[in-house]
Write a structure and sequence with these properties.
Helix content: 25-40%
CATH architecture: 3-Layer(aba) Sandwich
Structural class: alpha/beta
Strand content: 15-25%
CATH superfamily: Vaccinia Virus protein VP39
Largest sheet: 7 strands, mixed
Shape: globular
Order of helices and strands: HEEHHEHEHEEEEEHEHHEHEE
Number of domains: 1
Number of helices: 9
Strand order of the largest sheet: 5-4-3-10-11-13-12
Radius of gyration: 17 Å
Amino acid sequence: MNFSGVSDQTLVGRLLRLPLALIPPRTTLPILQGKLRGMKWIVGSSNHGCWLGSYEYHKRKAFEESVARGGVVFDIGANVGFYTLLASVLVGARGRVYAFEPVPRNLHYLEEHLQINGIKNVSVIEGAVSDCDGVAQFDESPSRLTGRLAPGGRLTVRTVSLDEMMTRGELPPPECIKIDVEGGEMLVLTGARVLLGNRRPILYLATHGPGLHQQCCELLASFGYHLQPIGVNSLEQPDEVFAW
């Protein structure tokens, strides 16, 4: 059930959310639905939809249907680990997940979620995926969900390029990549041109803004990708894109 699909701008939505505010942030609860059902989640780490099992409902359902056992998944912009945990369960013991996250407060929860669930098939890489290896400024923002690379950011983070890491043999080729980097999408894709051109992993890409959405779609189309919107009716709407 898509609990998160009930708008908080409606009376029903506000009433449904009232009891959630009473749950102490450090409470650990079981996730209620989806392939992560029964896994442990720290309530205050992120959106309540995560433990309710309705976070990014349509994208989560599509992700569950396309990630194969034994595969390799890159979670770029792992945040506190919802898709990292999901990918871990989907690929199984013979698969591998690489979670990329630059923000210390998110990394803390990410590592904690892996620990309390006994996850052994995930490697955490502290860094922001970009078009080259180096360092950059990062704007954490008040919300854990919206941090991004930005020239005026107060946090200095390591940046990594997927192509450069793979050239050095630090990463295996992935079958699936999830990208949610709050405006840094083109940097990620530009730094993975060789990977995209040669391996063509499937992509779950969140885009932020019409111009950036169009640029990403055009770049992926140039590599021969087919594009499909997630949760909306038209590819022209800047939102979630499934590319294969």
